[in-house]
Amino acid sequence: MSVSDQAPLVKTGAAVDRVVSEILGQIASGELSPGEQLRQEELAKALGTSRVPVREALHALAEQGVLAHQKHRGFFVTKRSPGELAQLARMLELLEDEVMSAIAWPDPVALQEIRQLNEQLLAAVDDVDPAGTYALNRAFHFAIFRLSSLSLIVDELDRLWRLAQPYIIAEMLMAEARRQRYEEHLDIIAGLEARNHEALHASMRQHRRRSRGDRRTAPWRG
Predict the structure, then answer these.
(1) DSSP 8-state secondary structure symbol assigned to residue 5
(2) 27 with 71: CB under 8 angstroms?
(3) Which end of the chain is more exposed for a tag (fewer CB within 10 A), N or C?
(4) Measured between alpha carbons, how far is 152 from 157 in angstroms, rounded to an integer?
(5) CA-to-CA distance for 157 and 144, rounded, in angstroms?
C-alpha cells in the first residue's frame, strides 16, 4: 500500500476532498495547531474555491472529531485533554492488538511493499517535512493492518489515527525518533517474514511502548 492509497476521509466530491486533504496537511505540518481556529473565508480564498466545499469539508472533519465546532464561534482543531489522550492511546492499543491477531501472512509482493515503505522512511530520516514522514509511517502500519480480515476494526483504526495525527507528528519531529521507528519496524518485518505470531506481537508491542511512551506523562505518543 502506497501513501497515496489511503482511503479518503469523505467521498462527497473532488472539491471537498481537496479541502479535507489541505486541512489535514496543515495539521500534519504543524501549520494548524490543536485549538487553532479555521476560518471559512480565508480557506476558500487560499484554495481558490467557494465556501460551499470548505463548509462541507469542515463539517465532515468535525463529524470525524478532527475539528471541533463551537456554536457562534466556528471550527477549531480539536484539542485533547491528557485524559482524552490516554483514552485515545488505549483504544489504539486494544484495536491494533485485535487486528494483529487476525492478519493473513503477506505474500512476497506485499512483504516487499512493506519493506520499501520502511526504506522510504529511512531515506526521509533527515527530511524536514513532518507530514511526509508521518504519511510514510502511517502507510507502513496500515499496509500491515489491512492484511487483517477485520476490515471494520481497521476502518476504525484509520479514524483514530486521524484523531491522533497531530500528536504522532509531534513525537516524530526529531531525526533520532524517526530512525528509531525505522529500526523497530525491522523487527516487525522480521516477524512477518518468519510468520511467527509471537515474535510479531512482541515486536509491535515493544514498538508501541517505546514510541508512545509512558501514558502517565505523555499519554499518547504514536
Answers:
(1) G
(2) no
(3) N
(4) 9
(5) 12
**How remote is the C-alpha of 130 from its chain's centroid?**
12
In the structure, how many helices (H) and strands (E) does the chain have?
A: 9, 3
Q: Which three cell numbers stand for residue 71?
A: 456554536
Residue ranges of domains in the chain: 3-77, 82-212
- CATH number for the segment(s) 3-77: 1.10.10.10
pLDDT tens profile 116-173: 999 999 998 887 666 678 889 999 999 999 999 999 999 999 989 888 877 777 777 6
- Per DSSP, the three-state class of 37 is strand
- Taking 3-state DSSP, the helix, strand and coil percentages for the chain, each rounded to the nearest 5, stand at 65, 5, 30
Query: Is the CB of residue 222 less than 8 Å from the CB of residue 167?
Result: yes
DSSP string, 158-215: HHHHHHHHHHHHHTT-SHHHHHHHHHHHHHHHHHHHHT-HHHHHHHHHHHHHHHH--T
User: Three cell numbers at 61?
Assistant: 472533519
Nearest Cα neighbor of 32 from 193, 202, 165 is: 165
Backbone angles phi, psi at 75, to 5 degrees: -110, 140
- Topology at the third CATH level for domain 82-212: Four Helix Bundle (Hemerythrin (Met), subunit A) (1.20.120)
Give the global pTM: 0.71
